[in-house]
Each structure stands twice: as C-alpha cells, then as structure tokens.
From TrEMBL:
Residues 91-262 form the Glycosyl transferase family domain. It catalyses: [GlcNAc-(1->4)-Mur2Ac(oyl-L-Ala-gamma-D-Glu-L-Lys-D-Ala-D-Ala)](n)-di-trans,octa-cis-undecaprenyl diphosphate + beta-D-GlcNAc-(1->4)-Mur2Ac(oyl-L-Ala-gamma-D-Glu-L-Lys-D-Ala-D-Ala)-di-trans,octa-cis-undecaprenyl diphosphate = [GlcNAc-(1->4)-Mur2Ac(oyl-L-Ala-gamma-D-Glu-L-Lys-D-Ala-D-Ala)](n+1)-di-trans,octa-cis-undecaprenyl diphosphate + di-trans,octa-cis-undecaprenyl diphosphate + H(+); Preferential cleavage: (Ac)2-L-Lys-D-Ala-|-D-Ala. Also transpeptidation of peptidyl-alanyl moieties that are N-acyl substituents of D-alanine. Residues 363-605 form the Penicillin-binding protein transpeptidase domain. NCBIfam families: PBP_1a_fam (TIGR02074). Gene3D superfamilies: Biosynthetic peptidoglycan transglycosylase-like, DD-peptidase/beta-lactamase superfamily. It comes from Enterococcus lemanii. This is PBP1A family penicillin-binding protein. It holds the Pfam family Transgly. Keywords: Carboxypeptidase, Cell membrane, Cell shape, Cell wall biogenesis/degradation, Glycosyltransferase, Hydrolase, Membrane, Multifunctional enzyme, Peptidoglycan synthesis, Protease, Transferase, Transmembrane, Transmembrane helix. The chain crosses the membrane at residues 44-64. InterPro entries: Beta-lactam/transpept-like, Glyco_trans_51, Glycosyltr_51/Transpeptidase, Lysozyme-like_dom_sf, PBP_transglycosylase, PCN-bd_Tpept.
Length: 718
C-alpha cells in the first residue's frame, strides 16, 4: 500500500470539503451579524452580565452581613465538647484552636515572618489586596487554574479557616473576599493576626501556634527564637511536607527561604539570616506537647468519634473540630480510664519480635443492649492523631471466635443441642486439625465449643450446609465475600477479616438474648445553635436469633472460661461467657498471627485482639491466646466489671449440667449430686492407685489425673 498516495487523496478530499463548506460559513456569518445588530445583542449581553454581577454581589453582601463575624473571636476560643453516657463532660476537641493565646503571647519574630511571607501589604489593605488578586487572575489566564493561591490576604485566609471549605473555586474566593471585608471592619490588625495564628494547622494533629511551639520546640510561642519562628511560619505552606519531625531537610530549606524573605522585607539583616541558617534545626527539636492538657483525654476514643461523625453522618471533620458541637457518646469514663492504664503497662503483652516490632493490640468494651461502645483502645505505642485505629478499622481473621457465629448458632437453629455428639476426626473434604494435633473420634458440642476444637466445627458446618453457616455469619454483621463460602469459614479463614468492634457487636447478640445492634459511639450531636442534628438515643436493633438459641449458645460459651481455652483469663470475682481465637502463621504453623479473647456478661462485651501489624517470619506469636492474653484480659475484666450492674446470667454453664440447658436458678445451690459423685470417683481413684502402684508404678499419676479432671470439669464455677 502506497502511503504517499493515501495522504494525497486525503488532502484532495479535505480541499473539496472546504470548498463546499466555505460559502455556507460566509452565509451563516452574514445572517448572524444582521441578527446581532438588529436586536442589539451586544447591549443585551452587557446588561445580563451586569445583572448577574449585581445579583451575585447582593448575595455575597447579604452572606457577609448575616454571618456573625462579631462572634468570631469568642467562637475560636470555644471548643466542641464530648459527653459520656451519663451526659457528663468527658473532654474537648482542640480543633483548629489548640490552646488559645493572645497577641502579647506571640513572639515578634513570628509576626515579622508571617507578614513577610504571607501578606506584605497586610497593614495597608482592608481585607483584600488588588495586586494579589491581579496576580491570581494572571495565573488563571496562564494555567487555567486557581491552584497556587497568591490572591488571598491573611484576613481572607482567616475567613476561609473559620467559615469556608478548602476548595479553590471562584464562588469560595468571592465569599472569602466579602467576609474578609467584614472581618476588617470588626477587628484590629493585631486581633486578626492573633485569630489567624490560633486557627492555623501545623501538622501532626496540632492546631494553633502555642501547641505547635511545644510540639516542635518545647517552648511557649512567646519564647520562639528567630529560626524556630521561621520554621513554624514556613510550615504554613504545607504542614505535611515542611514539618521538621517528618521532613527535616524540607523544613531546613523552607526555614532558610523564610529567613531570606524576611531580609528582602527589611525585617532583619543578611548577617542575622546567615547566622540563623547555620543553626542545626534537628538539635532544637523537643516535643513537650500533651494532648491531655487540651482536653483530649481519651485520644483513641475521640478519634473514633470524629471518624464516625464523618463516615455515618456526613459531617466535615474540620467542622466537627471547630464549630462548637456538643457530641454525646456511649463512653464510660471508668472503663476508658482503666483500659488506658492497662495498655500503658507493657508487662501485659508478649515481648517485641526479634526485629524489634511491637506486638499490637486493640480492645472494645460495648454495651450489648444498645450497641454503644463504652471503651476503646486503638493500638499500643506512640499515639498519632487520627491514625489507623485497629479497634474499628482493622481487618484481621477472627480465628475460632467465628465458630459460634458461622457454625454453632446455625446448628442450634437447625435442631442440634449442646449435649449432642459431634464427629472429632479428619474429613476428606477439608484439611484441618485440632490445635494439639490429636482427635477423640467423638465429642459433645459443649465440649467442642469450650475447648475450641477445629475438627468438630468443620464437620458440623458440612452437616448443616455451607450456605446456612455463611448466611448466619452475614446476619451477625461480619463483612464476608463470596470467597468466604468454603469450609475454612468454620475456622475464621476470611478474605478480608474483621475488627474487635464488629466482633463485640456480634457477641452482643448472645449477651442480650438475640438482637444485633450496630456498634457505634455517638448517641446525639447538637450544633452551636442548639439544634439536634443527629439523634441515635434509641437505636433500633434487629432480632437475628431466638432467646432459646441465645441461652443455648451462652450455656456453652460459659464453659470457655470455666473449663476451656480461656481458663487462664478467667477472673476470680466474675463469671463470663465467651470465646478465644487464634490464626495460624504461614511462616511457622506452630505459631500464630492473630490471637483473640471475647468475653461477655449481660452488661458488657469485651473484645480484645493481639498480633503484629505486619506479620512476617520474625513477627509471629508463640503460645495460645489464653496463655498470652490471660493477664491482660483478666485485668480488663477486673477494671470494667465493678462499674457494671453485674447482672447475673439466666442460664447455667453447660459443663455443670452435662450439656442440658437449665436456668441458673434451677441448679441446686450446693450441687449435692455432684458432691456425692465426687466422693465415689475419689474412692475409685484410691483403689485404682493401689492396683496401679503394684503393676505399672508411675502410670498411676496419669490415670488419677484423668479421673480427677473428669470430675472437676463437671463441677460448677463461681
């Protein structure tokens, strides 16, 4: 094929098309010109433009006049308040205010640096700068974008921080300008500077100059040196990339730029700038900032409150922090204080890995009767403002804690009973094994639950059907996918996993008698005008199992703490039901990635997880969850349950009743029958011991232990 001939034909075709089109365009232009002149369309366009400009100006003028600019200064000094479950103040969001300071408490170096870099004509204009607007207009014409700023004065930036969103649009810029004019009418230049520096964001969850001074240099704002002041002012351009903790080199370069700009603006000499540029910025860093001092006493809980308000109710996170909301939550301050004290003690947790990584952990304390989260710890180690909260955000395998949800509850609904015998042996359709590698052939359901046996769970899921187990787990609120519809569902092998909050909500169904409540922190939100904008004080639950099924499940789960895998976590003072869970590590099958304990009473559900955030060959956990988490979970029980109503269980432990579901009040107080049986069994032990000593000596001890253990397991626990 000749490419040149093809191109030649295309050129000829285009010329012919133009010859045909040209007279039509000329005719159209002539008609359009006659119509334009006939109807004076130039005047119409000008008139419409003026009318639209007038309407827009009137609207913006009205907006500026109706905004309570006179309340700005007092509003910035107020904080959004968070209340606990009994409507007592639990803390305050520091918002974009931080610890508010007055003009006299600000270093003069900060003022000079700020004026030099952000708004040199600050003391000359009246809220807007025509030169700055012209620069922004040129940028729009050249770049077809408003990104890059340049047109906003410090007063306009204050208006944006206090009243507007962060989108760079003409409508926002126009509102910003009119509001700036009103602010200039109401406040002095020094007051405007003070409000701006108290609302500015300085990175790492810190707002306001005073808190930033402590966060980065450990001093009050008044005592900042020249270089420190230049560093903080330089951060305003981009706190995430110019803060010296995370990006020291960037911060140094930005500091030096600010110092040079101050020289250009005649605020200091070149010699002073040069001397300050030689100071090692890294040596000056010293963090004395304490969120607790600003009312952020329960940081992980408060972080989760902000995230929930944004995610569920569509509120803007910055508005939540600075608009004076009253947020009522399910927080129990006794729970939370005790949890924070426990998590501050490293002795409750396994040691760090050989690579030095910290064993992470998260816990939730939830009211099963309404789904309100009463206590929350998001992780161990250093706190990061609104960082990844493991208690509500993580997705990890729940291990065996899923068995009551995906296997045993649907089995009970299908007609199985706690004393029913299950198969405890390997199956051809799914490869699995019990934790200790042994199996007994047959075992009762309540024993399989308490001892967290894997083989009976897989067998039972096969018997009732995968679909039934999958659908029931979905009803409990677990975030499953179609890929989770396999026999590994019996053991917690999920594609994405779940969180302590979701698992606490699921176990709340057993604690309250069958109703699922969505886990949540917020009960009500009231805005600064007094209007109730969120009201969840009467949450609606969904009944997903019957009271009978709930009682049957609870009777078996009581055995986890009395005779099962959570014996080491059981409290001497309180009775709990629940489940443990462990997930096998792919790097070493004798060790685990995740370990769980979930325990509940009719008053509270406690859901706790430990594991490495990034599992690896080094980041694995030895031992079982009951062994590693025993002291931790017992401390949580003893720290939380004294503040509950201590409502007793209405059903007896299946280990006491031999798997029969009996009301707790119907179990004989002294349990005379079991005492008589104990005496008979002990007599048998004595006779067997005599015989065994004669025949095989040392084996007597093991035989005796087995008999005593059998009796002991049937005794009730306090």
């Amino acid at each position: 094929m000749d490419f040149k001939k093809i191109m030649e034909k295309i050129k000829i075709g285009l010329k012919q098309f133009w010859v045909w089109l040209k007279p039509h365009l000329i005719t159209f232009k002539q008609h359009f010109t006659r119509l334009w002149k006939k109807y004076h369309l130039t005047k119409v366009v000008i008139l419409l433009t003026l009318v639209l400009t007038l309407i827009m100006s009137t609207y913006l003028f009205y907006l500026a006049k109706t905004t309570k600019v006179e309340d700005l200064a007092s509003g910035l000094k107020e904080a959004s308040v968070i209340y606990d479950q009994v409507d007592e103040e639990a803390g305050r969001f520091q918002a974009q205010k931080g610890n508010y300071i007055e003009y006299e408490q600000i270093s003069p170096y900060v003022i000079d640096a700020l004026i030099s870099t952000e708004d040199r004509r600050f003391y000359e204009h009246h809220g807007f700068d025509l030169k700055g607007i012209a620069r922004a207009a040129v940028r729009v014409l050249i770049n077809r974008s408003t990104v890059g700023g340049g047109g906003s004065t410090l007063t306009q930036q204050l208006a944006k921080n206090a009243y507007l969103t962060l989108d760079q649009t003409f409508s926002r810029k126009a509102k910003e300008l009119f509001l700036a004019i009103e602010i200039e009418k109401k406040y002095s230049k020094n007051e405007i500077l003070t409000m701006y520096l108290n609302t500015a964001y300085f990175g790492n969850g810190v707002w306001g100059l005073q808190d930033a001074s402590h966060k980065y240099f450990g001093v009050d704002a008044l005592n900042l040196s020249l270089g420190e002041a230049a560093t903080l002012v330089g951060m305003l351009k981009g706190p995430s990339i110019y803060n010296p903790i995370d990006h020291l080199d960037n911060a140094i370069n930005r500091r030096d730029t600010v110092l040079q700009v101050m020289v250009d603006n005649q605020k200091l000499t070149q010699e002073e700038a040069n001397a300050e540029q030689q100071v090692a910025l890294g040596d000056l860093l010293y963090d004395t900032y304490n969120p607790a001092n600003s009312g952020y006493r329960y940081p992980y809980y408060f972080d989760a409150v902000i995230d929930e308000a944004v995610r569920l109710y569509g509120l803007d996170d910055e508005d939540i922090l600075k608009r004076g909301y009253k947020i009522y939550t399910g927080l129990d301050q006794n729970y939370q204080s005790n949890l924070q004290s426990i998590y501050a003690e490293n002795g409750y947790f396994p040691p760090n890995s050989t690579s030095g990584d910290l064993v992470q952990s998260a816990t939730i304390a939830l009211n099963p009767n309404n789904g309100e989260i009463q206590g929350l710890i998001g992780r161990r180690g250093d706190y990061t403002f609104r960082g990844f909260n493991l208690a509500v955000d993580m997705e990890r395998s729940p291990g065996s804690t899923i068995k009551p949800l995906s296997v045993y509850t649907p089995a009970l609904e299908a007609g199985y009973t706690p004393d029913q015998i299950l198969k405890d042996e390997p199956q051809s359709y799914y490869e699995a094994k019990n934790f200790n590698g042994t199996y007994q052939g047959e075992v009762s359901m309540y024993h399989a639950v308490a001892q967290s046996l894997n083989l009976p769970a897989v067998w039972l899921l096969h018997e009732i059907g995968l679909t039934k187990g999958f659908n029931k787990a979905l009803e409990f609120g677990l975030p499953l996918t179609e890929n989770d519809k396999y026999y590994g569902l019996a053991l917690g092998g999920l594609e994405h996993g779940t969180s302590p909050a979701v698992m606490a909500s699921a176990y709340g169904v057993f604690a309250n008698g069958g109703t699922l409540y969505s886990p949540h922190l917020i009960r009500k939100i009231v805005d600064s005008t007094g209007a109730v904008i969120v009201d969840k004080t009467q949450p609606k639950g969904k009944r997903i199992i019957s009271k009978q099924t709930s009682d049957e499940m609870t009777s078996m789960l009581l055995g986890t703490f009395s005779n099962g895998t959570a014996v080491n976590a059981a409290s001497y003072n309180y009775t709990l039901a629940g489940k443990t869970g462990t997930t096998e590590s792919s790097y070493d099958t004798s060790k685990s990635n995740d370990q769980w304990i979930i325990g509940y009473t009719p008053d509270v559900v406690i859901s706790t997880w430990i594991g490495f955030e990034q599992p690896s060959a080094e980041n694995v956990i030895s031992g079982t969850g009951g062994e590693n988490m025993g002291a931790l979970f017992r401390a949580q029980i003893d720290g939380i349950l004294p503040y509950t109503a201590q409502t007793p269980f209405t059903v007896a432990d299946a280990y006491v009743t031999g798997g029969q579901v009996i009301a707790a009040e119907d179990v004989p107080e002294g349990n005379d029958l079991l005492k008589k049986e104990l005496q008979e069994k002990l007599d048998q032990v004595t006779e067997k011991a005599k015989e065994e000593v004669k025949n095989i000596g040392g084996k007597v001890i093991e035989k005796s232990k087995e008999l005593v253990r059998e009796i002991w397991n049937r005794l009730p626990r306090p």
